[in-house]
Amino acid sequence: MKEIKGGVCAPLGFKANGVHCGIRKNKTKEDLALLTADDMCSAAAVYTTNKVKGAPITVTKANLQNGKARVLICNSGNANTCNADGVQKAERMCELAAQFTGADKSDVIVASTGVIGQILPIEPIEAGMPALAAGLSREGGAAAARAIMTTDTVPKEFAREALIGGKSVRVGAMAKGSGMIHPNMATLLCFVTTDAALSPAMLDKALHAAVADTLNMVSIDGDTSTNDMLTVMASGKSGIKEITEEGEEYAAFLALLTAVLTDVSRAIAKDGEGATRLLECKVSGAPDVPTAKKIAKSVVCSSLLKAAISAADANWGRVLCAIGYADAQFDIDKIDVDLCSAAGRVAVCRGGSGVPFDEEEATAVLSPDEVTVEVNCNSGPARATAWGCDLTCDYVKINADYRT
Questions:
Q1: Helices first, then strands: H and E counts in the chain
Q2: Model-level pTM greater than 0.85?
Q3: Looking at the structure, do residues 219 and 154 belong to the same domain, yes or no?
Q4: Cα distance between residue 195 and residue 163, in whole Å
Q5: Per-residue pLDDT tens digits for 6-25
Q6: Structure-derived torsion over alpha carbons of residues 310, 274, 155, 99, reported in degrees to the nearest 10
Q7: Same domain? 195 vs 286
Q8: β pairing state of 229-234 and 344-350
Q9: CB of 266 within 8 A of CB of 158?
Q10: 282 and 260: one domain?
């Protein structure tokens, strides 16, 4: 398996583009993205667990009932959520995408991100479609990735390649998300492409399995958004035999998909609103996987720990506190905790109790932009990893006037 360039256009059979159509006031920012497949694809998706859901989710769910899709359209700057005409606007976006790509409107995935509760103007989207469609290309993934950004500071594009069934198979992804991110599906927008061939049922199975260990293990601020959506389209252009059941080829594809979504997860966490550090928690020695996941999530979700990490303060008691209120059964008196980074490793807890350590050394370890808290439960074979970020004053500044 190797990392490659191209994002969603790295797999064979896909083109993309992004333009500024006028939803955003800032004319230097793209705000409308289009992703198309040369032919019909198997498709699958996961969605937010929030009871309040954006209108695009309603429309996309209906369109993907047959497990097929060919086109994706997404706007930023407006979430099209909690609006009386939301479904009508989302369906109109599908009609426009179909009109300019030759697809059927029922084969379109539609998504929106931005401010909740404001009417989505459809006129800029209608006006922007000719240029958007005309610019579709194998090199358009970067423009599309920029067009779905909101408070993200960097575009998020990834792709990997591996041999499956003797043929080269690629998975690509673009994602957006910096705030309103908490592990209940995958609190963000993420669009994945692959040139593997899978039946809709097996693609759906692989997606849910990969998300459980990646994007469902990310938290920025504890807020589960209303528009979260992760979709995947499989073109089958790699030439491998269609995967219709579990086996060696399915396992290899799942590993490839999981690797790409791990790349996405780390990038989302590192680009959290106002963040200066990626906070990773690796749990080992847990009695079972659910327990390991609950402990890891509890640690990265702790506001007190996140604040300490922002100051490179080795206040390890906050780690134990977060572990202690995790909704799981384990022996706290067996817990070991180490703080790690590229700068080194410091043991701060053994058997549930503190051990002497050098504060200056600990500060140095917590100073790089990626920090890991390693928790060993010493109670079993299970492992899990969760990702978050530090909590800074800038998070409040960004969200205080987000709408106005």
A1: 11, 15
A2: yes
A3: yes
A4: 12
A5: 999 999 999 999 999 999 98
A6: 140
A7: no
A8: unpaired
A9: no
A10: no
